[in-house]
Amino acid sequence: MRLGIVASEFFDPRIGRMGGFGWAARQVARFFRSRPDLGVEVVFIGAGFTIPLPFLGTHIHDTPLIAFASGKSYGKALEDHMPDVCLTIDYRHSYRKVLCSLPDIPVVVWVRDPRPVEVTATLATLGIPGHGSSLSQGIKSIDYHSLVKVMDAQRRVLFATPAPSLRKLAERAYQCHLGKFIFLPNIVDLKPGKVTKHPKPRVIFLARHDPIKRPWLFVELASRFPRVEFLMLGQSHFRGPGSWEPSSLPNNLVMVGHVDGEEKRKLLSSAWVLINTSIHEALATSFLEALACETPLLCCTNQEELVSRFGIFTGRYDGDGMQSLPRFTIGLQKLLEDRDLRTSIGQRGREWVEHTHNEENFLAAFGELCGAAEIGIVAAST
């Protein structure tokens, strides 16, 4: 069986942005590569971004990558790697050409961050402090209208999600009834073992440094806690007008940049708190990875009520978010001062992630989806 993963990014800085969509695609490919007994071959199908010429016809994360370069070369590549089923990482208009060229192939839309008009309206309030009225990059509305046409053209379209609470948002965004909405969890494969926290207070930011994440709030918090070490992981995707450029950083803030693998595991395990300042999140993968490393959350979004269960939810704040700083300050102070609270939250969070977003649950749900699509997959042995 061949699985085609359709996405607009693949978690490789050489070919595009580094976000949760690409992370999810990579995790699925890694899983099936580690389980050859399942007989699932994965191919990445890129849509909505330009592949640099050196990477055309190559492999990313040991997985074949094909994308629109020219009609003939793309068609030949697709013929050589014809999928039996497609898994799309959410839905974007750019996926339509790919999916409509495969009308007989069942499609699973993995709903991850649907944005109906009310989410778009929230994003429209976003502004970067000191940038006046210039429009922030990365907050454009998303055109979902073509999904209905894809559903009319495809043999079978199914819907799955790592966050069941997204159903209502998805139906408003896609403007259609989703039918059965299957829980398809993320694959969080960090193995922190026994967690040892840094001896001195350390908090961490793990996200792109793009306006939607409001990284300037993390910088401002660092200036309010000069005795606490602030680590800023990640990098900016955007450049130029409407992007955020760090300046006048406090001495206790370290710009670490992009990290992955063992280095990310060590930093997340050492942190006392993960802080997320985004104006909007669905189910952020950084939340799951932090909790897997027993690190509680301090955030102003609360999808799935994850933050209120395993951290402190400040409440929602639109715009540039500067009004949230008193609540962030109070929340951070509480978590830093109460070791027992941090430890309890972290342990409960790790237990939940390990029992929910794991390989076994992913495989069981994927098997259910394949059954609904009338596609066979080798049963997992547990």
Low-confidence stretches: none
CATH architectural type of the largest domain = 3-Layer(aba) Sandwich
Q: What series of H and E elements makes up the topology? A: EHEEEHEHEHHEHEEHEEHEHEHEHHH
Total strand segments = 14
The portion of residues assigned to helices is: 25-40%
- Radius of gyration over alpha carbons? 21 Å
Word description of this protein:
The structure is a single chain. With 382 residues, this protein is of the alpha/beta class. The protein folds into 2 domains: 2-187 and 358-372, Rossmann fold, CATH 3.40.50; 202-355, Rossmann fold (3-Layer(aba) Sandwich), CATH 3.40.50. The protein is built from 13 helices and 14 strands. The chain has helices at residues 20-34, 71-80, 95-100, 117-124, 146-153, 167-174, 215-224, 261-270, 285-292, 306-309, 325-337, 339-356, 359-372, and strands at residues 2-7, 41-46, 59-60, 63-67, 85-89, 107-110, 157-161, 181-183, 202-206, 229-233, 253-257, 273-276, 297-299, 311-313. The strands form 2 sheets. The chain has an 8-stranded mixed β-sheet. Strands 11-10-9-12-13-14 form a 6-stranded parallel β-sheet, sandwiched between helices. Strand 3 and strand 4 (63-67) form a beta hairpin. The relative contact order is 0.13.
Summarize it.
With 382 residues, the protein is an alpha/beta fold. It has helices at residues 20-34, 71-80, 95-100, 117-124, 146-153, 167-174, 215-224, 261-270, 285-292, 306-309, 325-337, 339-356, 359-372, and strands at 2-7, 41-46, 59-60, 63-67, 85-89, 107-110, 157-161, 181-183, 202-206, 229-233, 253-257, 273-276, 297-299, 311-313. The chain folds into 2 domains: 2-187 and 358-372, 3-Layer(aba) Sandwich (Rossmann fold); 202-355, Glycogen Phosphorylase B (Rossmann fold, 3-Layer(aba) Sandwich), CATH 3.40.50.
